[in-house]
Design a protein that fits this description.
Strand content of chain B: 15-25%
Subunit structure (chain A): The complex is composed of two ATP-binding proteins (LsrA), two transmembrane proteins (LsrC and LsrD) and a solute-binding protein (LsrB).
Largest interface: A-B, 52 and 45 residues
Strand order of the largest sheet of chain A: 1-4
Number of strands of chain B: 15
Membrane topology (chain A): Multi-pass membrane protein
Helix content of chain B: 40-55%
CATH architecture of chain A: Orthogonal Bundle
Shape of chain A: globular
CATH superfamily of the largest domain in chain B: Response regulator
CATH architecture of the largest domain in chain B: 3-Layer(aba) Sandwich
Distance between the termini of chain B: 51 Å
CATH topology of the largest domain in chain B: Rossmann fold
Largest sheet of chain B: 8 strands, mixed
Oligomer: heterotrimer
Number of helices of chain B: 10
CATH class of chain A: Mainly Alpha
Shape of chain B: elongated
Pfam families (chain A): BPD_transp_2
Number of helices of chain A: 13
Number of domains of chain A: 1
GO molecular function (chain A): transmembrane transporter activity
Structural class of chain B: alpha/beta
Chains: A mainly alpha, B alpha/beta, C mainly alpha
Helix content of chain A: over 70%
Structural class of chain A: mainly alpha
Order of helices and strands of chain A: HHHHHEHEEHHHHEHHH
Radius of gyration of chain B: 22 Å
Protein name (chain A): Autoinducer 2 import system permease protein LsrC
Largest sheet of chain A: 2 strands, antiparallel
Distance between the termini of chain A: 17 Å
C-alpha cells in the first residue's frame, strides 16, 4: 500500500506543522504560556484521552465501519465497577487488574455485538454507550466512590522530570507497542489489510472477525487503563468521568490521520493529535478565550484537516 | 517526537527571558463557575466585575461548558500555571479539586471556594451565599407552610453528581424526618442540565402521584421545566412549585401561580464578595468575625472554625416582591 | 408499488406496536394512574420534538448518511424563534422562521458533507462542535426565558381536550414524507442512492443533489421541532438539544431504518419514538429512578436489533416475533 503510506506521512507533516504553529502562536501572544509546567499540564490532561483514542484508532483502522461510541461509558463503568469490587472486599492490590479486565470485558460485549450478532458498530456501541454510561450513573446515584488505596495516588499525580508517571508508564509504552505491532507484525498487517479491503482479506485467509473482536477487547482494556488513571488521579471513582470522551477520542483519531473508512493511518499521528487538542485547549484558556470557543475550534479544525486531506491528493493528481 | 521536544525546549528557554518582561500591573482574581452560560453564574460574573473595579484588581471569569469535574480541574490548573494570585472555584465535585490545591500552595497562590464548597481540600476560605443548612431549611419550611404538614413532595434536581445540590436535598430530607414526620418526600429525580427533561420528569411525577402537593426544582436549570410542567398539566393551585430559582427565571411562573415562591440569594452580591475576599487574601489581610465590605450594605460574618464567609440569609421571592429584583 | 408498501409495514413495526402495548398493559397493572388521560397526554406531548427530528433523520439515514448535530440545529432555530417572539413578531412569522433557519443549516451541513467529501459521521461531529459554540455565542450566557405564550396558544392547544394541535402538523409532515418517499421520483432516487450510490449515479440520478436535499429536509424538520419546542417550553437554555441526536438515532434505527441506507420506515420511526417515550414515562411512573432511563433505551435498542438478527439467522424466530 505505497499510496496510503505516502499520504500518511504527508498527514503527519501537516499535523506537526499545525501543532508547531499553535504552540508558536500562543507563545508569541503570551510568552508565559511556554513555561516548563505547560508540558506537565498538557501531558497530565492528555493521558486519559490518549489511551482512549488509541483504542478508538485501532477499531477504526480495522475497518468494517468500525467505531466505538461507548468508550466514555466504558471508562466510567470500569472505574465504578472496580471500586465497587474493592468495597465488596476484593484486595486493593487487584485494583489495576480489575479496572483493565472489566474494561476488556465491556469491550468484548461490543465485539460480540459487532462480530457475532452483526449489528453495525455505530449502532451497537451507541446502545452500549447508553447502557454503560447509564449504569455507572444509576448504580451510584451520581455519587463518587472513595477508597482508592493511598499507594495508588502518587501514580496519578506524581511527575518524573516534569512528565506524569502515568504518561511514562502507560501512554508511551501503549503507543510504542501499538506502533511496533502495526508496523512489524503479521497481526498489524492483517489489521491494515482488512481495514483496506475486507473481502480480499477474507479471501487470503485472514480471520477478520477474530481480529476485529480482539480490537474491541483491546479498546475496552485501554479505556479500563484510562479509568485506572482517573482513579489514581482523583482518588475516587466518578460515574461521569468518561463524559464526552467518545466524540473527543474520535476527533483525535481522525485528526491524527486515521481514515474513517479504515486501513490507513498510524497511531503516532493520533498521539500528536491528542497532544495538539489538549495544548490548544490549554492555550485558549491561557489567553483567556472563553471556553465556549473550544468545542467550536476543535470541530472546525477537524473539518479543516479533512478538507485539506481531500484537496491535496487532488492537486497532485 | 524528538522534533516536538526540541521545539518545546527552545520555546521554553525563550519564555524564561520574555516572562520577566511581561509583568502584571494589577493582581488578578479568578472565579471558576461550575459551568458557563447560565444566568446564575452570569450574575456572579457581573458582581465580580463591579468588585474588580472597586478594589483595583483584574477579574478573570472562566469555566467549563459542561459541568464536568475534569474540565473544571483543567481550567483551575491553567490558572495556577498562569500564576493568577487568587483563584476561587464553585466546586462541582468536592474531591476532584484535591490534586491542584497542593500545587497552588507550592506556588504561593490563594485557592478558595465560592458558591459550592470542598471543606476538606485545604482551601483558604469558603465564600458562602448562605449556610447550606439555612437554604435547605428555609425552602422546606416555606413550602410546608403552603402545602401543609402531611403533604407529598417531589424533587427535580440537575446533575446527579453536583455535590452542593445533593447536600441541599440531604438537608431537606433530614429536616423533614426531624420536624415534619408526616410529610412524604419522593426519591429525587435528575434531569441533567436540560429544561425539557426537567419538564418531562416533573409531569411524570405529578401523574404518578396524583396527590402530589409540592415540587422542588433543586437546580436553577430545572426551574423553567418544573414551572412549565405544572402550568401545562393544569395543576396550578394544586401543586406548589418552588426551588432555588432566580427571580428572572421564575418570574412568569410565580405570577401564574405555578410556583408559590422561590428561594435564592443575590448572585451578583456573591460574586462581589468573592472578589473582595480574593483581594483580602492577596493582601494578606485576615478576616475578622464581622467584616465591613466597601460597597455592601451589611457586615459580613466570618466563622473562623469552618473558614466560611457568609453573605447572609437567603431571600424568599414571592408574587409580591419578585418585581423589585432583576437578576 | 403496493406490494412494496405492504412489505414496508413488516415485522419490525408490528413488533414495536406489540411491545408498546404489552409494556403499557404491564405499567397499567403496576400503577392505577398509568392509563389516565393525563398521563397518556404527557407521553404524547413529550414525544413531539423527537417525532419531528426522527422523521428528518429517517431521510438522512435512508441515503446512508447520518447527522449527530441535529440537536444543535434545533437549538439554533429555537434561539431565532425565541428572539423573534421577544421582539414582538407575529407568532406565525416566528413559527415559519424555525424551519427556515433549520433548512439553511441543513443545507450547510449537507454542503460540507457532499461538496467537502467528508464522511457524514466525521463532518457532523465537527459541525456539532461548531454549532454548539454558535449556540453559546448567540445566547451570550443568558437564557431566553418567560417567552410570550403566543406560539403555545397555537401549537400547545389541545384538540378535543387531548391531542396537542402540533400533531396536525406532525401528521401532515409524516403523510407528506410518505408521499414523497413512495410516490415521487425524488423518493425513488433517495432510496436508490441509499441502496447503491454508484449504480444510482450510472442510472442518471443526480446523486449529490439528492444527498444534499436529504440534509435540507432534515434541517427543516429540526427547525419545525424547534417551533414546537418553544411552544411547549417557552424558554431556551444553553444545553438545548444536547440529548436529541442520540435519542433520535436510537429511535429511528429501532424503527427499522438501516444506517446503511436504502430502507426507510416512517411508521417505524414514529413507533420507535413512541415506544422509547412510553417506556421512559412508564418506568418513572412505577418508581424507577430517572437515572435508569438511558439504560432502558440502550437495552431496548440492542435487544431489538439482536433479536432481529438472531431471528433472521433462524435461531429464535419464535422468541422474537411470537405467535402470529
Amino acid at each position: 500500500m505505497p499510496r496510503s503510506t505516502t499520504s500518511t506521512a504527508l498527514k503527519l507533516v501537516i499535523l506537526l506543522v499545525l501543532f508547531a504553529a499553535i504552540v508558536a502562536a500562543f507563545g508569541l501572544y503570551q510568552p508565559r504560556f511556554l513555561q516548563t509546567s505547560l508540558v506537565s499540564t498538557v501531558l497530565q490532561f492528555a493521558s486519559m484521552l490518549a489511551l482512549v483514542a488509541l483504542g478508538q484508532a485501532l477499531i477504526v483502522l480495522a475497518g468494517g465501519a468500525g467505531i466505538d461510541l461507548s468508550v466514555g461509558g466504558i471508562v466510567s463503568l470500569s472505574a465504578i465497577l472496580s471500586m465497587m469490587a474493592l468495597q465488596a472486599g476484593a484486595p486493593p492490590v487487584t485494583l489495576p487488574v480489575l479496572a483493565v479486565a472489566i474494561g476488556a470485558l465491556l469491550g468484548a460485549v461490543n465485539g460480540i455485538l459487532v462480530t457475532r450478532i452483526r449489528i453495525l458498530p455505530l449502532i451497537a456501541t451507541l446502545g452500549t454507550l447508553f447502557v454503560y454510561g447509564g449504569l455507572a450513573m444509576a448504580l451510584t446515584a451520581g455519587g463518587s466512590l472513595s477508597g482508592v488505596p493511598q499507594w495508588l495516588v502518587p501514580f496519578g499525580r506524581g511527575l518524573v522530570g516534569g512528565v506524569p508517571y502515568h504518561f511514562l508508564a502507560l501512554v508511551l509504552p501503549a503507543y510504542l507497542a501499538a506502533a511496533v505491532i502495526l508496523t512489524f507484525t503479521a497481526w498489524g498487517r492483517w489489521l491494515y489489510a482488512m481495514g483496506y479491503n475486507e473481502r480480499s482479506a477474507h479471501l487470503v485467509g485472514i480471520r477478520v472477525d477474530r481480529i476485529r473482536f480482539f480490537a474491541y477487547c483491546l479498546s475496552g482494556a485501554l479505556s479500563g487503563l484510562a479509568a485506572l488513571v482517573s482513579l489514581a488521579w482523583f482518588g475516587s471513582g466518578r460515574p461521569n468521568i468518561g463524559l464526552n470522551l467518545e466524540l473527543e477520542s474520535l476527533a483525535a483519531a481522525l485528526l491524527g490521520g486515521i481514515a474513517i473508512t479504515g486501513g490507513s493511518g498510524g497511531v503516532i499521528g493520533v498521539l500528536i493529535a491528542v497532544l495538539m487538542i489538549v495544548t490548544l485547549k490549554t492555550g485558549l484558556q491561557f489567553v483567556n478565550v472563553s471556553t465556549v470557543w473550544q468545542v467550536g475550534i476543535v470541530g472546525a479544525l477537524l473539518l479543516l484537516v479533512l478538507l485539506l486531506d481531500f484537496l491535496i491528493p487532488r492537486r497532485r493528481a | 517526537m524528538k522534533m516536538l521536544k526540541s521545539v518545546l525546549a527552545a520555546t521554553v528557554a525563550l519564555a524564561a527571558l520574555a516572562g520577566a518582561a511581561h509583568a502584571q500591573d494589577k493582581p488578578r482574581v479568578a472565579f471558576v463557575p461550575q459551568l458557563i452560560g447560565i444566568p446564575y453564574f452570569n450574575s456572579m460574573e457581573e458582581g465580580g466585575k463591579k468588585a474588580a473595579e472597586a478594589f483595583g484588581v483584574d477579574f478573570i471569569y472562566t469555566g467549563p461548558v459542561d459541568a464536568n469535574p475534569v474540565d473544571q480541574l483543567q481550567i483551575v490548573q491553567n490558572l495556577v500555571n498562569q500564576g493568577v494570585e487568587a483563584i476561587s472555584i464553585s466546586i462541582i465535585d468536592a474531591s476532584a479539586i484535591a490534586p491542584v490545591v497542593a500545587d497552588a500552595k507550592a506556588k504561593g497562590l490563594k485557592l478558595f471556594t465560592s458558591d459550592s464548597d470542598a471543606p476538606d481540600s485545604g482551601r483558604d476560605v469558603y465564600v458562602a451565599q448562605a449556610s447550606d443548612q439555612g437554604l435547605g431549611e428555609t425552602l422546606i419550611d416555606e413550602l410546608v407552610k403552603r402545602v401543609g404538614e402531611d403533604a407529598k413532595i417531589g424533587f427535580v434536581s440537575g446533575e446527579a453528581t453536583s455535590s452542593n445540590l445533593n447536600a441541599w436535598i440531604k438537608i431537606i430530607q433530614d429536616r423533614v424526618k426531624e420536624k415534619y414526620p408526616k410529610v412524604t418526600l419522593l426519591e429525587p429525580q435528575f434531569a441533567g442540565g436540560s429544561s425539557d427533561r426537567a419538564a418531562q420528569l416533573a409531569s411524570d411525577l405529578m401523574t404518578a402521584n396524583p396527590d402530589l402537593k409540592g415540587l422542588i426544582a433543586v437546580a436553577s436549570s430545572t426551574c423553567p421545566g418544573v414551572g412549565q410542567a405544572i402550568e401545562s398539566a393544569g395543576k396550578v393551585g394544586q401543586v406548589v412549585g418552588t426551588g432555588y430559582c432566580s427571580p428572572n427565571t421564575a418570574r412568569s411562573y410565580i405570577k401564574s401561580g405555578a410556583m408559590g415562591f422561590t428561594v435564592l440569594w443575590d448572585p451578583a452580591a456573591l460574586g462581589y464578595l468573592t472578589v473582595w475576599a480574593g483581594k483580602q487574601l492577596i493582601d494578606g489581610k485576615p478576616f475578622v468575625a464581622s467584616n465591613e465590605v466597601p460597597g455592601m450594605d451589611h457586615p459580613i460574618p466570618y466563622d473562623e472554625k469552618t473558614g466560611i464567609l457568609l453573605l447572609g440569609d437567603p431571600t424568599v421571592f414571592t408574587a409580591e416582591n419578585v418585581d423589585s429584583f432583576n437578576f | 408499488m403496493g406490494a412494496r408498501i405492504a412489505g414496508s409495514i413488516g415485522g419490525r413495526e408490528l413488533t414495536l406496536l406489540v411491545a408498546g402495548l404489552v409494556a403499557m398493559a404491564i405499567f397499567a397493572v403496576l400503577s392505577p394512574v398509568y392509563l389516565s388521560a393525563g398521563n397518556l397526554y404527557q407521553v404524547v406531548r413529550n414525544s413531539v420534538e423527537l417525532l419531528v427530528v426522527g422523521l428528518g433523520l429517517t431521510f438522512v439515514l435512508a441515503i446512508g448518511g447520518i447527522d449527530v448535530s441535529v440537536g444543535m440545529v434545533l437549538g439554533i432555530a429555537a434561539i431565532a424563534i425565541g428572539n423573534l417572539l421577544l421582539a414582538g413578531a407575529d407568532p406565525w412569522v416566528a413559527a415559519l422562521a424555525g424551519p427556515l433557519v433549520g433548512a439553511a443549516l441543513g443545507a450547510f451541513t449537507g454542503a460540507v458533507i457532499v461538496f467537502g467529501r467528508i464522511p457524514a459521521i466525521v463532518a457532523t461531529i465537527g459541525l456539532l462542535g461548531v454549532y454548539r459554540t454558535a449556540i453559546f455565542a448567540l445566547l451570550g450566557g443568558s437564557w431566553l426565558s418567560g417567552l410570550p405564550s403566543s406560539l403555545s396558544d397555537i401549537f400547545a392547544a389541545r384538540i378535543g381536550g387531548f391531542l396537542p394541535a402540533s400533531y396536525i402538523v406532525i401528521l401532515a409532515a409524516y403523510l407528506a414524507a410518505f408521499v414523497v418517499l413512495r410516490r415521487t421520483p425524488f423518493g425513488l432516487h433517495l432510496l436508490a442512492v441509499g441502496n447503491a450510490e454508484e449504480r444510482a449515479r450510472l442510472a442518471g440520478v443526480a446523486v449529490r443533489r439528492v444527498r444534499l436535499a436529504a440534509y435540507v429536509v432534515s434541517g427543516t424538520l429540526c427547525g419545525l421541532a424547534a417551533t414546537f419546542y418553544i411552544a411547549n417550553y417557552r424558554n431556551v437554555e444553553m444545553t438545548v438539544g444536547s440529548t436529541v441526536a442520540l435519542d433520535a438515532i436510537a429511535a429511528v434505527v429501532l424503527g427499522g431504518t438501516s444506517i446503511l441506507g436504502g430502507r426507510a420506515s416512517l411508521l417505524g420511526t414514529a413507533l420507535g419514538v413512541l415506544l422509547i417515550r412510553v417506556l421512559q414515562n412508564g418506568f418513572t411512573i412505577v418508581g424507577l429512578p430517572s437515572l435508569w432511563q438511558p439504560v432502558v433505551t440502550g437495552v431496548l435498542l440492542l435487544a431489538a436489533l439482536s433479536l432481529e438478527r438472531l431471528a433472521a439467522s433462524g435461531g429464535v424466530r419464535r422468541l422474537a416475533f411470537g405467535a402470529p
